[in-house]
Amino acid sequence: MCYRIYIPLCLFALLLLSPRAVLSQQNIASITARISIAKEDTVKLRLYKQAVEYYKKRVPDTAYRYAEEGLNLSEKLGVTTDEAYLSGQLGSLDRTAGRMGLAKVRLQNALELYERGINDKRAIGLLKNELGVLEGLQGNFNEATRQFISALKIYEGLSDTLGIVQTYIKLGTVNDYMENLDKSHLYCTSALALAQIIKDTIDMAYLYNNMAINQGKRGNYEQALKYCELGLSYCNTPRFDEVKVLLLLNTGIIYKEKGEEVRALANFKQALTIAREHDVPNLLLNIAMLDKATPHDQKIPLLKQALAIALKKDQKNIVANIYEVISDVYVDEHNYQAAYTYKDSANEIRQQIFTVQKNAEVANLEALYELDKSKHKVLQLEEQNKNKNFQRNVMIAIAIVIAVALLLYKSYKKTIGLNKELKAGKEKLALANQVKDKIFSIIGHDLRTPTHTIIGMLKVLDSEDHGMTHEEEAKVFKMLKEQSEASLETLNKLLLWGSRQIKGISLERELFNVNETIESNLKLHHENAIEKHIDIVNKVPAETTVYADISHFDFVVRNLLSNGLKFSKNSGEVEIGLAPNSNSEYVCFYVKDHGVGIKAGNTAHIFGLNSTSSLGTSNEKGTGLGLVLCRDFVELNGGKIWVESEEGNGATFYFTMRKRN
Questions:
Q1: CA 530 distance to own-chain centroid
Q2: Are 623 and 653 in the same domain?
Q3: CB–CB of 276/305 below 8 Å?
Q4: Which of 124, 203, 601, 643 is most buried, by the most CB atoms less than 10 A from its CB?
């Protein structure tokens, strides 16, 4: 039975259940108009909350904007209750949009506010359920269960039947995912009994849908069909349409498994009609993924319809999923060019999601840090003010003047010290941010993108009938080898650089002849040089020695030769030799190429973290870390490194090393 296709959609839809608020279109128009003209902040704050409730299911981006504006206002006014509520709403909206890390920060902040000062048990239970949903969506089922059990205890203590029902539903869902079918069924039946008492019909419909899935997993198709029919009996108004679609899909699957294709198709068509009416892209996507119910030539139009809706609603996660499904359909049709195009589009969307999420998480963490600092400062100022008032009431006028003078002087000295510490802290933070940004950039682009490309190529090769000749296969294998080697080189540099940031660089200097190391690197680059028809010439005298760490010298030579080959044109020349040096205690080496050169504005910061790597003359990729490490290694050995270049006329890199200890 094809239940696995629908389980994520059917089950975790239930985890999102929350108290339902209803506003008419006329009311919301009045609310949004009054926000812009409201003179009292407390009135405006109440209107913001109403607008968030209305838009969070209809237009999430609009709800998010109102929630952020409301949160800023509540923080300004010091209204902790509204601050906690709006932070929780933002967390829920972030989770719906797939920004899981940011959602967790928002929800935990809201929970802390409620637990620390507000002590609203019902709100605390709701937030624990939200955190459980967040963990469940990420596959952390044990942590999700812990959060749900904690919420259940709160609702039981409050005798909140609706809260107990919805928490039972979530626990049933998690156990279904963990294949604890008996425990899942027990939670569902317990929730159903309570829902019937309070006449919570929409939850009853969702519960029958879950119970049908549970029975379907066991192979009890007749019982599963009965549960679907019971659930559909409640779906007689438009607000039941979402659960109605789920029940119709699962009913169709049951009939399909029983061999009743006509009935199965009728249910699928009815579900498709409702999904189209409500512009629900994830429902259209699931219908399109049916193996037999949807004819193969109808899948692409249906998927593209879902794609258009998801693009219109800016639902990037669903857009990426649809691109991948379309790619898989084209692979089945042996249209590999189209499959590759859609797979590449899916990778690009997921890269955008990753970048936006990380930037948003960092920005939010910084904002929370600044907020905590400002609150702490306010508390300090309040305490100082109390002391000042006390002294003014008990001391004579002259004593007050003296005390104030001393206080101001002390404050002035302390401020100077704090400013110095703050400046040093900002410099350290700026450097840490540069390190973090560089790592995220390399992981997110230079490692993630080639990995996706490799996986895509392997999937094509793994298909039984990929339609490629031996020559085409050899070309693909060559591309795979190049991508893998480039990724490995990037990872090695990243690990070496990361180790440098954490542990520092160990230094083991000795006196050695440099030519053995240079010749070793010439052999290492020999194959690449032949491939680009480039000569590498060693003009370093045979007797040349330096006092340095041999591994550091080896890395610098290897990296500079690699750069020379990378940016040299075919049939060119790369040369390593000694340059004249006015300081007799140092040996000055140069590595010279006749390639594309470096723009005048780029030479000043080419050895810094902010520099970005350019493609070589044969589209070779890099990370920008090589020259950073070269600078570190040369300077640690007491030398200097610099570059001279003119765009279009090649580049010459110079570095110095000590002759002796």
A1: 42
A2: yes
A3: yes
A4: 203
In this predicted structure, what is the pLDDT of residue 12?
34
State the DSSP code for 293.
S
Separation CA 501–CA 435 (nearest Å):
8
pTM (2 d.p.):
0.48
DSSP letters for 325-354: HHHHHHHHTT-HHHHHHHHHHHHHHHHHHH
- Are the C-beta atoms of residues 507 and 637 closer than 8 Å to each other? yes
Residue 551 lies in a domain: yes
Closest CA to 361 of 46, 632, 99, 6: 99
Q: What one-character DSSP code corresponds to residue 605?
A: G
3-state secondary structure (DSSP) of residue 329? helix
pLDDT tens by residue, 533-557:
999 999 999 999 999 999 889 889 9
- Residue 29 CA to residue 316 CA, distance in Å, equals 28
The answer to whether residues 484 and 420 belong to one domain is: yes
Domain hosting 413: range is: 382-492
Going by C-alpha positions, the residue among 592, 589, 574 that lies closest to residue 541 is: 589
Q: What helix, strand, coil percent values describe the chain, rounded to 5? A: 75, 5, 20
Amino acid at the residue 303: L
pLDDT < 50 stretches in the chain: 1-24, 26, 291-293, 442, 445
Distance CA 626, CA 640 (A): 16
**pLDDT tens per residue, range 153-165:** 999 999 999 999 9
Give, as one character, the DSSP assignment of residue 258: T
Dist CA 509 CA 299 (whole Å): 66
Q: Report the CATH number at residue 513.
A: 3.30.565.10
Regarding whether 528 and 463 lie in a shared domain, the answer is no
| Closest to 77 (Cα-Cα) out of 53, 48, 104, 109 | 48
Domain edge (last residue) among 469, 492, 515 = 492
Cα–Cα distance measured from residue 28 to residue 55, given in angstroms and rounded to the nearest whole number: 9
Report percent pLDDT > 90 for the chain. 28
Length of the chain: 661
So what's the pLDDT on residue 13? 35
What total number of domains does the chain contain?
Answer: 2
Other C-beta atoms closer than 10 Å to the C-beta of 289 total 19
| Strand ranges in 299-451 using DSSP code E only, listed in sequence order | none
Q: Which residues are bridge partners to 643 per DSSP?
A: 653
**Cα dihedral 52, 53, 56, 59 sign:** negative
Beta bridge partners of 653: 591, 643
β-pair partners for 655: 589, 641
Q: How many CB atoms lie within 10 A of CB 585?
A: 11
| CA-based torsion, 54, 56, 59, 62: positive or negative | positive
550 token code pair: 């041999």
Q: How far, in Å, CA of 398 to CA of 517, rounded? A: 79
